[in-house]
Specification:
By secondary structure, this protein is an alpha/beta fold. The chain has 17 helices and 13 strands. Strand 12, helix 13 and strand 13 form a beta-alpha-beta unit.
């Protein structure tokens, strides 16, 4: 008889554990109760922070690169590579987590470092780039990224325009010659879970600017600057993509990816699941365990847990989390059979964040006891029944 097999495909617990640490702890708990069970750990992410780590945990090789941080300081980042495919995470190079002392710079922050990562990967022979764009610190319309790839953005005097979203109002000319040469034959695919346009009341500045420190006056200024940038790009490329779904993602990096890199956009979790081989690991599995730090309203809209549950098909799915803020009935509708929270074991959230691994191991034991009874048929047996 073929033994039971469990796939643990969890996102990170933000501020506490990486996706790999979550998967390892839960798997250890499952094996304590059921040492005969095979556990396959597949760390996942939704295209935001943690995407690079998930790719490395899935077997990609990390290539370290020092790049320009969102406010100009050098940061140690890198891209993950397997064959000719590179995985680049905007959050790691140009994200809010890279702001010195956490101080926002809504008007001047740049996406340049992310473009430098892409440039390094392409220079090293990569012909396909997977770009995760969640968690950015800038609202520069992706101009910094484009400039790192060779675009020249000049003011009326022919001088280079400064970095950041506010400076885009001074742009008078755009030269894409070097960018086009560099990216010839390179496919760019963007992991994107929002459909906001670049400008307007639901655009990059209006919706996401306040999260990056912009006050109402600055939001208005940034929106005007992005509109001017879109005019310039449309004049140079012959296409106006400011209203394309996803153009407003990551402060307009989505716009630059679409309009200047010829990128395609895909839901982040779907892209990452393909990348880490989730569908292959799912074959013959008896149970999928997924998870993230908090199960809340966002969980049901493009996050890893809902994406894993949707991809699991007929295989039962349970979730682990730090806290749960959703009605279990709604989670069941999303394909999640049961939820196990750290706060079920330890009501003190601070202790859950500080010491989550023993709690996750215990949850793994409970899941094994509840869902992997010795009388449970294996996937092979179900298929022949």
């Amino acid at each position: 008889m073929t033994g039971l097999r469990v796939v643990v495909a969890s996102d990170k617990f933000k501020g506490s554990l990486t996706s790999n640490q979550v998967a390892t702890a839960v798997g250890e708990g499952v094996r304590r109760t059921r040492p005969d069970v095979t556990v396959d750990a597949i760390p996942v992410a939704d295209g935001g922070d943690g995407t690079l780590a998930a790719a490395v945990a899935a077997g990609f090789n990390l290539t370290p690169v020092t790049v320009t941080g969102p406010t100009g300081e050098p940061v140690r980042s890198g891209y993950a590579r397997r064959g000719e495919t590179a995985v680049v995470e905007l959050a790691d190079a140009s994200g809010l987590v890279r702001l010195p002392n956490g101080v926002p710079a809504p008007m001047t922050a740049t996406s340049r470092g992310t473009g430098e990562l892409i440039a390094a990967a392409v220079a090293n022979g990569c012909t396909r780039v997977i770009l995760g764009i969640g968690g950015g610190a800038s609202t520069d319309g992706g101009a910094g990224l484009a400039r790192a790839l060779g675009a020249r953005l000049l003011d009326a005097t022919g001088a280079m325009v400064a970095e950041g979203g506010a400076a885009l109002t001074a742009a008078a000319a755009l030269d894409l010659t070097a960018l086009r040469e560099r990216l010839a034959g390179v496919e760019v695919v963007v992991a994107c879970d929002v459909d906001n346009p670049l400008t307007g009341p639901i655009g990059a500045a209006a919706v996401y600017g306040p999260q990056k420190g912009a006050d109402p006056t600055q939001v208005e200024q940034l929106d005007g600057a992005l509109a001017h940038w879109a005019d310039l790009v449309a004049r140079e490329t012959g296409r106006d993509l400011r209203d394309a779904p996803g153009a407003g993602a990551a402060g307009g990096v989505g716009f630059a990816a679409l309009a200047l890199l010829g990128a395609g956009l895909r839901p982040g979790i779907e892209l990452i699941l393909d990348l880490v081989g989730f569908h292959q690991k799912l074959v013959g599995a008896d149970l999928v365990i997924t998870g993230e730090g908090a199960l809340d309203e966002q969980t049901l809209h493009g996050k890893a847990v809902a994406g894993v549950a949707a991809a699991a098909g007929a295989v039962p799915v349970v979730a682990v989390c730090g806290t749960i803020r959703l009605d279990p009935a709604r989670l069941r509708q999303a394909g999640i059979t049961a939820v196990y929270a750290l706060t079920d074991l330890e009501p003190d959230v601070r202790r859950c964040i500080a010491e989550p691994i023993p709690l996750l191991r215990e949850l793994g034991q409970r899941i094994a006891a509840d869902h992997l009874a010795r009388s449970t048929m294996t996937a092979t047996e179900r298929g022949s029944a």
